[in-house]
Amino acid sequence: MKVYQAASNRYETMTYNRTGKSGVLLPAISLGLWHNFGFNDSFDNARDVLRCAFDLGITHLDLANNYGPPPGSAETNFGKILQADFKSYRDELFIASKAGYLMWDGPYGEWGSRKYLIASLDQSLKRMGLDYVDVFYHHRPDPNTPLEETMGALADIVRQGKALYAGISNYNAEDTQKAASILKQLNVPFILNQVRYSMLDRWVEDDLLDTLEANGVGGIAFSPLAQGMLTDKYLNGIPKDSRAGGSSIFLNEETVNSNIEKVKQLNTIAQNRGQKLSQMAIAWILRHPQMASVLIGASSVNQLKENVKALDNLEFSTEELNQIDAILG
Ligand SMILES: NC(=O)c1ccc[n+]([C@@H]2O[C@H](COP(=O)([O-])OP(=O)(O)OC[C@H]3O[C@@H](n4cnc5c(N)ncnc54)[C@H](OP(=O)(O)O)[C@@H]3O)[C@@H](O)[C@H]2O)c1
Predict the structure, then answer these.
(1) Is residue 233 within 6 Å of ligand 1 at its C-beta?
(2) CA 14/CA 159 separation, integer angstroms
(3) How many whole angstroms from 148 Cα to the centroid of ligand 1?
(4) How far is the CA of 252 from the centre of ligand 1 (A)?
(5) Which end of the chain has fewer surrounding CB within 10 Å, N or C?
(6) pLDDT band for position 273 (50/70/90)?
């Protein structure tokens, strides 16, 4: 493969949004490495997608200890690609990792203890060949560990220089408020809550967005395309080479079929806007100023290119928003 030279125009078209009240600007569209980057996936395709992302101005890459499969392999592959292609661009990248889900056997391999978080980040840094990540997240709330312990671990990780900023993921409004208060007391830069948000899952709209704003914390939306359902991919059935057509435990035929009528109606609105459904789904999330970035997945360079074109039309008329609300119910 040819030596990679980043596109010289990479900062010309991407939009960068401030994350909460922090100094950090994130690309309006970020790339996640949950699927398509593990040892079971094509390494060359993963590398092409990462190169294309950076060329399009996507500076924020999202990983976690357990991404693969097998768990850890997305970080290992990313480390190899980073070393080969992006070493000289490290300071242009904003790299995330997380810990919270099951990573290793025994009582210290998941959830929110200080023991788990600190050991896990050390493992992640080794796999990626990094001295530090830009943001380190607690991946999911832990009902059995005091929040003070989990947030205290994030604070020490930041003080040790292993992460520049702290984040949380999948925290509801109440827990976000508690986390923000603790981290404020500890004087830790807390910049992001990473949450599932799409046209097919609107829970954040109830009170989380207000809580984020009140605390000067940004939001970043994961699975904005509902894992591919909010694209034109499933309009005529389930392709074999899709997430739902494969062996994913996260998206299956039944879920696709139960949403397809809504998806078809949404697709018509997108067409009337002169956009692909994927593009409209991304733009729709970015209408909230609290949402600093939309965190997409992509199994190919073409998907990535299509999705980034969402930025060409971010405006919605009231009528369009009302039509979308009526479809979503
Ligand atoms: N914090 C958390 O708990 C959490 C949880 C989940 C995800 N995340 C993060 O969020 C990232 C994105 O999640 P996601 O992968 O579920 O996001 P998504 O953007 O909703 O779905 C991505 C998938 O949709 C399909 N797709 C994307 N663009 C398409 C297009 N233009 N046309 C047709 N199909 C298209 C592809 O699947 P196929 O081509 O394979 O069908 C792609 O892998 C993850 O990588 C991860 O970083 C975080």
Answers:
(1) yes
(2) 32
(3) 32
(4) 14
(5) C
(6) very high
Q: Cα–Cα distance between 154 and 62 in angstroms, integer?
A: 17
Please tell me the number of Cα atoms within 13 Å of 293 on its side-chain side. Answer: 32
- Measured in Å, residue 213 CA sits from the centre of ligand 1 at 26
8 A C-beta contact, residue 269 and residue 263: no
Residue 61's pLDDT is: 99
Residue 228, helix vs strand vs coil: helix
The answer to whether the CB of 113 falls within 8 A of the CB of 149 is: yes
- Residue identifier of the C-alpha nearest atom 31 of ligand 1: 303
Is residue 227 lining ligand 1, measured as CB closer than 6 Å? yes
Q: Is the CB of 162 under 6 A from ligand 1?
A: no
Q: pTM higher than 0.90, yes or no?
A: yes
- pLDDT tens, position by position, 61-115: 999 999 999 999 999 999 999 999 999 999 999 999 999 999 999 999 999 999 9
Question: What is the CATH topology of the domain spanning 16-328?
Answer: TIM Barrel (3.20.20)
For 22-34, what is each residue's pLDDT tens digit?
Answer: 999 999 999 999 9
| Nearest atom of ligand 1 to the alpha carbon of 306 | 31
pLDDT at 198 exceeding the cut of 80: yes
Closest-CA residue, ligand 1 atom 28, reads 303
* Residue 226 alpha carbon to ligand 1 centre in Å: 7
Q: Tell whether the torsion through CA atoms of 103, 105, 110 and 115 is positive or negative.
A: negative
Q: Are 261 and 327 in contact (CB under 8 A)?
A: no
Distances from the Cα of 324 to the Cαs of 82, 198, 263, 282, 328, in angstroms? 40, 12, 10, 13, 6
Q: Are strands 60-62 and 29-32 parallel, antiparallel or unpaired?
A: parallel
